[in-house]
Amino acid sequence: MSHLKIEHLSKTFGAIRAVDAVSFEVRPGEIYGLLGPNGAGKTTTISMISGLLKPDAGEVFVGGKPFWSNPQQAKRIMGVVPQELAIYEELSGRENLEFWGRMAGLSSSEARSRAVELLESLTLTDRAKDAVKTYSGGMKRRINLGCALLHRPKLLLLDEPTVGIDPQARLNILEFIRNLRASGTAILYTTHYLEEAETLCQRIGIIDHGRLLAEGTLSELQERLGGDRVFVLEADFKDASPDNWNGFHQRFRIIQKSERQLVVAAVGTRDSSECLKDLLNLPVRVENVTLKRPSLNDVFLQLTGRELRE
Amino acid sequence: MKRILDIGHTDLRLFLKHKSAYVWLFAMPLAFVYFMGFANHGPGKPYNRTPPVLVENADTNFLGRIFLDELSSQNMWLLDPTNRETAARVIRIPADFTSRVLRQQQSKVQFLRHDASEEADAALIEVRLVRALIAMNGHLLEAATATNLPGTLTEEKLRAVMARPNLVSLNAKFAGRKPVPSGFNFSLPGNLVMYLMMNLLIFGGATVAAERRNGVIKRLMVHPVTRLELVMGKIYGLMLLGVVQIVFFLAVGKFLFHVNLGANLPAVTLTLLVFAWVAGSLGVLVGSLVAAHDRVTKRPTRIRLKPWWDRWLPRMIA
Q1: Closest to B312 measured CA to CA, from B28, B6, B1, B9
Q2: CA A52, A55, A57: angle at the middle one, nearest 5?
Q3: Could you tell me which residues come within 8 angstroms of residue A94 by beta carbon, excluding any fewer than 6 positions away?
Q4: If you count Cβ atoms within 10 Å of the first and of the last residue's Cβ in chain B, which end, N or C, has fewer?
Q5: How far away is chain B from the Cα of A116, in angstroms, using its nearest Cα?
Q6: Which of A173, A75, A40, A141 is nearest to B218 (CA)?
Q7: pLDDT band at B316 (very low <50, low <70, confident <90, very high)
Q8: Which CATH number, 1.20.1730, 3.30.70, 3.90.930, 3.90.350, labels domain A226-293?
Q9: How confident is the model over A45-93, as pLDDT tens digits?
Q10: What is the tens place of the pLDDT at every residue in B205-260?
Q11: Which of the residues B207, B222, B293 would you substitute to probe the A interface, choosing the one with the greatest number of A C-beta atoms within 10 Å?
Q12: C-alpha torsion sign, points A64, A68, A70, A73
């Protein structure tokens, strides 16, 4: 049974449809990545799952039960890490953890002992008594994450938990999240960093303009573009018209075309060398060809017509 | 209930982590109580005020001087003529006062009102003036009829009569109303309610607005905390802050400024707690309405300081 299941979730703000019939589920011991640019609807989706917003349509099931049938019960098995640093900067790391633990329903003694454990896991024991405002960005992010884990939630919602921190601190947090997954926690992880989604998540949902455009494992998403064969051609494509190239669309799918670059994925199971030969025979003077595995950015590009980083 | 207490206790701890909290909870109120109490310190005791009187004595003879002494013995505060602007009333003794009285003719002593004076002060002066006149008439009558003081009435004879113990005395005090507070009795309760309201509004409003902005309120709401628990917790935290302020004011008032805290301290405390509850609730309301915490803190501080600069500082300098 999945810890989180959402069905046809929709939310509209005035004329803007922020989330449009989004459905997915997160299973125990799985990290489900919700990948999309800023404004795609990731945070709105998390807000509806956590009860901050009521959906206009659709249903959220937490632990197999509809969220709104008993929100307090659902919140007890859920931990939420917001995008912003929603912690008390004047309090120490330990005080923050203990407070949020008590808010999650732990007794004072339970919160105290769990805070000690978490400070150890988050490698913050040395700074436990210092005010959070004296912490580095990465340490604050770790405390922000820890504050959602006091009550050992079965379902963890992480809303871009690594925004604005250095690569080393990001790696530490990602490693911590992998360990959580290993303990059986179901994790919904929203991000706009491709590398995080590729390296961390078992399944990925690509969301843009409130719609879930595709979902699956990384390899399933790559398959949509022709497995591991994406060719990047560099040439003068200003006056080139692929529609007039004989049989080109039967053999290749265009992912992106600009004046200087053409990105294509091979269709079918032909050998890469044959594909390369076909491309070199195109009626343009190709200056450079690169063969690469399709990235999530290529998938996003193919689905939306623009790059995730734009 | 446990979450309400937790939220409240944490909020109090957060308030007290700010240095500005100590300034606004303790230092500024103390300074304001002192300066306002000093500036408003009325003459005499609160239960027996002695408003200042200017006496213009044109009589150079002895009865004018004796009349001044009679006024002084009635606790009348007689001003030096250089401070005439602060007088509540003016008493003008004519130049022929002694000669007319000795000729057993009526003399007209003028009792003039000062435009800026208060009616209550004028009434107190009038009572004392009447008492001084009655006493002087009594002494004159006694001196004139005394068998052991023959001859013309002189200053020595009259003062000898005045020096005798009164056979009958009347110990009177004001009845029917509570004492008019002045000095610290006036400034401390006023500042207490003012700072209580201001601090709970500003701290409450700024805290809730800041927590809304940095996501703490949202984070609380994704925990199994009900809206009621959240609001009550916030108000409870502000109530605790109010209790700190109330205890500080009452202790300072009692032991430092020796303020009369009233006959029923528990009732006073209960009233203040209800006031703190209302102020705290308004603070939470303000915080939930404004967009940013700095909008809460700037305006009231400006409003709060304006009377200080406009009124109290020039008075203190003067």
Answers
A1: B28
A2: 170
A3: A115, A116, A119, A128, A129
A4: C
A5: 19
A6: A75
A7: very low
A8: 3.30.70
A9: 999 998 888 999 998 998 888 988 888 888 989 999 988 888 898 899 9
A10: 888 888 888 889 889 988 888 889 999 999 999 999 999 989 998 898 888 878 77
A11: B222
A12: positive
Distance CA(A191)–CA(A214), nearest Å, equals 15
The reply to whether residue A91 touches residue B226, judged by beta carbons under 8 angstroms, is: no
Task: Report whether A204 contacts A221 (CB < 8 A).
Answer: yes
* B226: chain A residues, CB-CB within 8 Å: 72
Contact A50 B222 (CB under 8 A): yes
B residues 185-224 lying closer than 8 A (beta carbon) to A: 214-216, 218-224
| Residues facing residue A230 across a β-bridge | A265, A292
Using the Cβ of A86 and the Cβ atoms of chain B, whether some distance falls under 8 Å is answered with: yes
In sequence order, what E strands does B114-251 have? none
Residues B159 and B234 in one domain: no
B120/A172 Cα distance (integer angstroms): 77
| Position B99 in a domain | yes
Tokens of B251: 């202790």
Test the B interface: residue of A92, A103, A144, A155 with most B CBs within 10 Å: A103
Q: pLDDT confidence of A99, banded at 50, 70, 90?
A: very high
Q: Inter-chain contact A75–B18, Cβ cutoff 8 Å?
A: no
pLDDT tens-digit map of B292-302: 655 555 555 55
Q: DSSP for A134-163?
A: GS-HHHHHHHHHHTT-TT--SEEEEESTTT
Residue B127: give the domain boundaries. Answer: 48-163
Q: What is the pLDDT of residues A258-276, one digit of tens each?
A: 888 888 888 777 788 888 8
Number of domains present in the structure of chain B:
2
Distance from CA of B18 to the nearest CA of A (A): 8
pTM over 0.80: no
What distance in Å separates residue A198's CA from the closest CA in chain B? 28
SS3 A2: coil
The residues, any chain, with a CB within 8 Å of residue B213's CB and separated by 6 or more, are B291, B292, B293
CATH 3.40.50.1110 given to domain A4-217: no
3-state secondary structure of B53: strand
* pLDDT tens, residue by residue, A197-216: 888 888 999 888 888 888 88
Q: Which residues of B touch A102 (CB under 8 A)?
A: 2-3, 6
Q: Which of B6, B14, B219 sits opposite A90 (nearest CB)?
A: B14
CATH of the domain at B86: 3.40.1710
Are the Cβ atoms of A102 and B219 closer than 8 angstroms? Answer: no
Closest-CA distance of chain B to residue A82, Å = 7
pLDDT at residue B149 in the model: 52
The answer to whether A85 contacts B220, with C-beta atoms less than 8 Å apart, is no
